[in-house]
Amino acid sequence: MNTLVVDLDTWKKNSVPASFGVTIGNFDGVHLGHQSLIKDFVAECKSLSLIPVVFTFCPHPCLYFDPEKKHLVSSYNKKYELLKELGVEQIVEIKFDEKLQNMTGKEFANETLLAVKGLQLLWVGHDFTFGRNKEDPSWIEQLDRGISFRKVSPFKVGDETVSSSLIRSYLTEGDVEAANRLLGRKFSIEGLVVHGKKLGREIGFPTINLRVNYPFFIPALGVYKVSCLFDSKIYKGVMNLGKNPSIDDGAQIKVETHLFNFDQEVYDSNVEIQLEKFIRKERKFDSIEQLKDQIALDLAQARGLDD
Predict the structure, then answer these.
(1) Residue 1's pLDDT band (boundaries 50, 70, 90)?
(2) Are 78 and 114 in contact (CB under 8 A)?
(3) Radius of gyration for the chain, computed over Cα atoms and rounded to the nearest angstrom
(4) Tell me: the pLDDT tens digits for 78-93?
(5) Could you say which of 2, 45, 59, 145 has the lowest number of CB atoms within 10 Å?
(6) Which superfamily does 186-304 belong to?
């Protein structure tokens, strides 16, 4: 069966497998803890000849309560891509809205998990609860439905319990390497390449400028050593994430990346910028010449990190 990403109503009408397992959560970032849960869940489903299904929320509940919040460690599309790679065969989006917000745990279960036949396996993370009353869902196993339930133990790397909130904390500090260690890959920002002011080109350091169309979590503002994934190829470079205080007084945060040995026209292309190391904080320079000198130093430092 092909992997499906569908809303809950469509799934209930058209896509419910005869026998399936479900794991449910936000899975923002699909970090090492999520990966461990999903891999074990998929393996258990396969051993029982069940279709592995993920239920997830859209929008993320934090964004429902604060739509302007910059919160997502991964875009929804990136999350779905990673879940598919882990063997998930169906992804069901549950709309988080006022109705869902006000449901009790039992009302939520009856509207979603128990609304169809075929559910035989339910896995949740160690801190997952149902409904406005934050209900432990283990009662589902006591129903006369033949549903096996498992609450997965916390996943640790060293002494740290891996979580999306801890990853956000590290990103806020500029500790990209710690965040990447818990993600099991490089934190990335995805977007469409758009035209900028072309000042970088004028001063000898052309950049690709991203328009990001999802509320990505904003790490510490500054300069990063990065890789750019474009057209199935990887290019090294340096990204400035910030407000360009040396150029203008705008409040908008910009994602501008200079790539080494790169001269392609990529406007209107989707690219992914993967953060590898924080080089320095953003700061304002007194002149364009000072800015040029610092950019040259940033590039040299980034190149040296590959040695």
Answers:
(1) very low
(2) no
(3) 22
(4) 999 999 999 999 999 9
(5) 2
(6) Riboflavin kinase-like (2.40.30.30)
Bond prior to 137 in cis (omega within 30° of 0)? no
Domain boundaries, the chain: 4-161, 186-304
Number of Cβ atoms within 10 Å of the Cβ of 201? 11
Contact call for residues 55 and 11 (beta carbons, < 8 A): no
Q: Give the rounded percent of residues in the chain with a pLDDT score beyond 70.
A: 94
Q: Please provide the CATH number assigned to the domain covering 4-161.
A: 3.40.50.620
Provide the residue type at 219 as one letter: P
List all residues 6 or more positions away from 96 whose beta carbon is below 8 Å from its beta carbon.
Answer: 57, 58, 59, 60, 61, 64
Q: What is the DSSP string of 25-76?
A: S--TT--HHHHHHHHHHHHHHHHTT-EEEEEEEES-HHHHH-TT---BSS-H
Q: Kindly state the average pLDDT of the residues 60-86.
A: 96
H or E element that contains 115: none
Residue type, 129: T
Quick check: 55 pLDDT over 70?
A: yes
Task: Give dist(CA 289, CA 287) in Å, integer.
Answer: 5
Question: In the β-sheet with 20-24, what is the strand arrangement from edge to edge?
Answer: 4-7, 90-95, 51-58, 20-24, 119-124, 148-151
Residue 240 has φ and ψ, to the nearest 5°, of -105, 120
For residue 176, what is the enclosing H or E element?
A: helix 176-183
Strands 188-194 and 51-58, sheet pairing: unpaired
Reply yes or no on whether the pLDDT at 238 is more than 60. Answer: yes
- Give per-residue pLDDT as tens, 291-307: 888 888 988 999 887 65
170: left (phi over 0), alpha (psi -120 to 50) or beta: alpha
